[in-house]
Structure to design on (654 residues):
């Protein structure tokens, strides 16, 4: 197969002026490498953070919806105007205890079965979440107990990953697993006993394991306890505060949340709402990266325009000869566009390897203790294919656009003037 | 029986616009038959190169008509002109005007490549042409590695590769020494006689012009003589 004349000449021009071609390729390659490297590192960070968050929490949390404040006020007003001393309106909230009661879910096994039947729901797990006081000797701290059924909760999230010490499967009715920071604050060790204090009373538990989620606040206040023990501690027989749900498709969370809310009249909160800030930041970051990428490649493309203008000026005699030999203006234009594309292919190839090299270098750089400690950056950064494709397409498109003016100018050259130039 | 008419000009005129317009070619009418070996002579600025550019469709006339085999081609589109230049015309310039990034063989093969007729046959023909002009061992040399005379011979081979009907040569020996000039002339003459290719040669060398069959003399853009020295059979 014979190459089209424009392509044949363009490739030869590119290869014949290697020094010039390499300089342009370097400029384009630098842009491509930066476009690949920066998003790969940052999106890997965000991606890892998000994955860690999503995998370590329920995709949807279902709780009982509180009555609205307006309704309560209306009920209270009715109650006050009727002057009845009796609290016969179930909507009125008189105390924290009543508030708590309002939030509990009763007959949860049947409800879980129904939710499990919703399309897209993979697993369900009941839980109790309440704020309590923890004490050990003279040390007193606030804590958040999570009453769970470990074997069910493990279907929802990577529970084992949170456990630094101990086996949660063996958690007995008088055992607790507590955040390592909380243990540190209380000065307790594995096997020590702590007191959990609620409005219903207090009870002693043995510390059977330590939790390390990598998230400061969680490690400072989380206490895992079996669901049954939590029900006993809080005097919530056959009641739970919520149901954790795992989905087949995490991005279907808003839709399935709506379905559950509409069907069961329960309050739902999905992982996307919980991570709205980070999702917004990722979106914003993409915009910023796109803008920076535009500037970088624009600069590289400008160099292509400048060089091609010089090439056209220096090759005007040859352009005249090619025209004399019958190369039509359209082909002359394509010739220089192809040359720019050849340069962008060289640059993009160099840029992809450069970007990969930068990522390798980044991965080879040891992480600081602080990074590892927080659980961020422990995963190696991988090349972001999406941005790699964008970078290549963007570099080629920019080079194409950058070549249009010089190519058009070349095609318009008068062959007689060009030959005599 | 005379050879058929190839080119005809009727009042061919080229005026360059400006505050004081310059008429480089002024109402020139003549005809050229197939197989002629013709020279156009004149002083510097007489309009001979402009006339060649008009005849070779590198430039458009401002007035007059140019016929090729009886067809008016003076108002053809750029696409038609390009195709015509590629298929029917060969150009030889004073400086060889080879493309420096391509070797001798690639330079010779450029017209068929442009015309998308490159194939094993054209490659063989290019090699044959280069062998015929004595460059069989220089085919893969770059223009920078060849002498002026060798480059000019490559340019002749390039002009002939597409079997053109007409070859326009603008001062083809202007930059060559005496011996090389004679070699180049003899080569063009051989091709003219063997292949019946029409040569229209622009030159300011009277000695060279005398060796052609017919000489058209220009002065200030006007044709002042059309002299046949050796009638074309």
């Amino acid at each position: 197969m014979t190459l089209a004349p424009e392509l044949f000449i363009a490739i030869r021009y590119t290869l014949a002026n290697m020094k010039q071609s390499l300089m342009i390729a370097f400029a384009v390659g630098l842009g491509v490498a930066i476009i690949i490297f920066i998003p790969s590192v940052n999106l890997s960070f965000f991606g890892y953070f998000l994955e860690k968050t999503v995998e370590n929490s329920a995709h949807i949390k279902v709780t009982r919806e509180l009555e609205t404040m307006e309704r309560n006020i209306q009920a209270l007003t009715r109650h006050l105007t009727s002057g009845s001393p009796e609290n016969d309106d179930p909507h009125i909230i008189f105390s924290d205890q009543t508030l708590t009661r309002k939030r509990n879910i009763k007959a949860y096994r049947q409800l879980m079965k129904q939710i499990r039947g919703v399309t897209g729901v993979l697993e369900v797990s009941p839980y109790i979440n309440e704020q309590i006081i923890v004490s050990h000797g003279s040390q007193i701290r606030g804590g958040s107990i999570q009453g769970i059924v470990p074997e069910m909760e493990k279907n929802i999230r990577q529970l084992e990953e949170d456990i630094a010490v101990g086996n949660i499967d063996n958690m007995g009715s008088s055992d607790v697993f507590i955040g390592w920071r909380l243990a540190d604050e209380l000065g307790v060790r594995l096997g020590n006993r702590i007191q959990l204090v609620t409005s219903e009373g207090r009870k002693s538990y043995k510390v059977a394991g330590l939790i390390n989620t990598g998230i400061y606040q969680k490690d400072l206040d989380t206490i895992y306890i079996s669901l049954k023990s939590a029900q006993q501690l809080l005097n919530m027989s056959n009641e739970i505060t919520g149901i954790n749900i795992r989905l087949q498709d995490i991005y279907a969370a808003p839709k399935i949340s709506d379905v559950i809310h509409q069907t069961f009249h329960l309050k739902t909160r999905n992982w996307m709402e919980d991570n709205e800030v980070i999702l917004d930041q990722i979106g914003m970051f993409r915009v910023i990266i796109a803008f920076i990428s535009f500037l970088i490649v624009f600069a590289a493309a400008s160099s292509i325009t400048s060089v091609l203008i010089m090439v056209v000026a220096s090759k005007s005699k040859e352009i005249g000869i090619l025209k004399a030999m019958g190369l039509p203006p359209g082909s002359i234009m394509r010739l220089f566009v192809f040359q720019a594309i050849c340069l962008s292919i060289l640059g993009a190839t160099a840029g992809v390897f450069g970007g990969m090299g930068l990522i390798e270098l980044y991965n080879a750089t040891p992480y600081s203790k602080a990074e590892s400690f927080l659980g961020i950056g422990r995963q190696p950064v991988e090349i972001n294919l999406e941005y790699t494709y964008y970078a290549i397409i963007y570099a080629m498109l920019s080079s194409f656009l950058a070549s249009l003016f010089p190519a058009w100018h070349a095609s318009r050259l008068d062959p007689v003037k060009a030959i005599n130039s | 029986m005379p050879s058929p008419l190839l080119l005809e000009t009727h009042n061919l005129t080229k005026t360059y616009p400006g505050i004081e317009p310059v008429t480089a070619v002024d109402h020139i009418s003549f005809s050229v038959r197939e197989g002629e070996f013709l020279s156009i002579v004149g002083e510097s600025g007489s309009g001979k190169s402009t006339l060649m550019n008009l005849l070779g469709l590198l430039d458009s006339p401002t007035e007059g008509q140019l016929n090729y085999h009886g067809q008016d081609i003076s108002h053809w589109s750029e696409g038609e002109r390009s195709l015509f230049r590629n298929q029917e015309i060969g150009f030889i310039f004073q400086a060889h005007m080879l493309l420096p990034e391509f070797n001798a063989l690639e330079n010779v093969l450029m017209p068929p490549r442009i015309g998308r007729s490159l194939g094993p046959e054209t490659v063989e023909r290019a090699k044959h042409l280069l062998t015929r002009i004595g460059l069989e061992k220089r085919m893969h040399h770059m223009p920078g590695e060849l002498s002026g005379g060798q480059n000019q011979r490559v340019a002749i081979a390039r002009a002939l590769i597409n079997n053109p009907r007409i070859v326009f040569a603008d001062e083809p020996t202007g930059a060559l020494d005496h011996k090389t000039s004679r070699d180049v002339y003899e080569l063009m003459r051989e091709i003219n006689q063997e292949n019946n290719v029409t040569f229209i040669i622009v030159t300011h060398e009277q000695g060279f012009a005398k060796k052609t069959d017919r000489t058209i003399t220009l002065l200030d853009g006007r044709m002042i003589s059309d002299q046949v020295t050796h009638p074309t059979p």
Remarks:
- Chain A touches chain B through 24 residues (CB under 8 Å).
- Residues 276-314 of chain A form the longest helix (39 residues).
- The longest strand of chain A covers residues 121-136.
